[in-house]
Each structure stands twice: as C-alpha cells, then as structure tokens.
Write a structure and sequence with these properties.
Elements (H helix, E strand, L loop, with lengths): L13 H16 L8 E6 L1 H4 L10 E4 L11 E5 L12 H4 E6 L5 E7 L10 H14 L5 E5 L2 H9 L4 H11 L3 H4 L5 E2 L8 H10 L5 E4 L3 E6 L2 H23 L9 H10 L12
Parallel strand pairs: 7-8
Antiparallel strand pairs: 1-3, 1-6, 2-5, 3-4, 4-5, 6-9, 8-9
Helix pairs in contact: 4-8, 5-9, 6-9
The structure holds Dihydroxyacetone and zinc ion.
Dihydroxyacetone binds next to loops.
Amino acid sequence: MAMILTRNSIETAPFLQEMIETTTNLYRHGWDERNGGNISYLLNQYEVIPYLDVTKVIRTIPMNFDASALAGKYFIVTGSGKYFKNVKQDPASNLGVIRISEDGRSYEILWGFENGGVATSELPTHLMNHMTRLSVDKNHRVIMHCHATNLIAMSFTHILKEEEFTKTLWEMCTECLVVFPEGVGIIPWIVPGTNEIGEATAEKMEHVRLVLWPHHGIFGAGNTMDETFGLIETAEKAAEVYTIVCAQGGKKQTISDEQLQALAEAFKVVPRPGILNI
Ligand code: 2HA
Ligand code: ZN
C-alpha cells in the first residue's frame, strides 16, 4: 500500500521565518545595501525533514576548500549577489537550504536558489567560521556578516589594535563588556570572497565571536539568530556612540577601568586580558 507523505510548506518553517526577519531587520538598519551581507544558519536534520525531502538534491556545487568537518550538515544560507531587501518577497530565489557533501568538497542544494542561484560569495569564510566555532562551542549555529556603518567608519579613524578598539567599544556603552567580554578580533584588509580572508577570520573566531573586516564590515557568530544579531547590534551601537562622541568634540570623561572591572564581576564575565589596567 502506497504511503502518502505530506510535508509542511517550507514557507512556514521557523528557520526560514528567522532568516526573513533577520535579513529584513539588517536591511532596515542600512547595514546591507545592494547585495551586501550574508548569513548562514546551521540546521538540525530533524528541523529540515518536516519541510523537505532531503533525498532530492537539486544541484551540487563544488567548493575549492575542505569542509569535511561539516560533512552532512545542513545550512540555510543567503544567496550570492542577492539583496537582503528582496528576501521577504522572494525567499526561494534569495535563500537556499544546502547540505555539505560527504567529502567536504561540494554542497548540495536541497531548496531555494531558484533560477540558477548559488550560496553567498563568502561561503568559505562562513564554513571555516562554523568549523572553528563548533570546535570551541557545541551549541554554535549562526554566522552573520553585514556592513555595519559606524564600525566601518571606525576602521578608518580608530587605531586597529584589537585591545584598543575593544576598549573603546566597551567604554561607549556600559553593556558592551557584558555582551562581548572576549573583545573584537581584527584582520588585515584582504580581498573578500577568498579562502585567505576565510582562514584569517576563522583563526580569530577561535577566541572571539566578532571579527572586524577593516573598511568592509563585521562578522558575528552565535548560538541563535537573535543572539548573533544582538551581538552585532550592540557593537554597532557602541561604534555609533563613538561617532557622535567624536563629533561632539571627544571624551571629557569615561567609564574607568575600575568600573569596567566591577561591571565584569557583577555580571560574572571575564574581560579579555591585556585591556583593563587594574
Ligand atoms: O555578499 O558582503 O562581503 C556581499 C558581501 C561580500
Ligand atoms: Zn561584505
């Protein structure tokens, strides 16, 4: 007797709704003009199978790096050249669900990327970051990249030493130290979309969840979409305050190192060593 399997429409999948909401919010902030920005979200197979026949591979796309540590893993990813502005009105063209092949040298498209689309040009960085974050945090799931305006601006005006950059952000909003006690990683300027920028970013991601790409944007990592968005939002808010402080003529007073230390103790976080002078 034939069994009829009914699947729910993928449009109702919580992970798809989260992608739509987040890309829309990032666009609304002005951090993802044109095709700027990309997101990848690690999915459990049990989250995917109510919506998709995972035995049906639509296309297989080769990759020129080794992602075998992620073999068999599922992601929903934004598309290469696609605009965050358009995700909500046409998710199936602008997003895709992919699975990393067994040899880690290609990915299989299971849904989306309609009309010949492929995953984000920053897929090397995304997958390398996922590998690194999973090696230090088994609950890790999200990598997010955007062109956060004030963080980019700060990469022109502020010294690019991680400790000094982090300290400035911590000073600009009291909650920063609590949200990213490990600070911000900074890589040199490198051509985007390359394995080289992926490797440099992933190396930083072993110790931090925020990595600044000078004169380009920011990468964030987290366990949930909300947490990752919130992390970037918090750093960008601090950078915006910095912009305004500079425009108002610079600091006359600030949060002292002793106060930052007291904050860390109250919220039970460990500030990255080498930043506070206590
Ligand atoms: O996807 O943001 O870094 C476009 C970009 C590349
Ligand atoms: Zn970018």
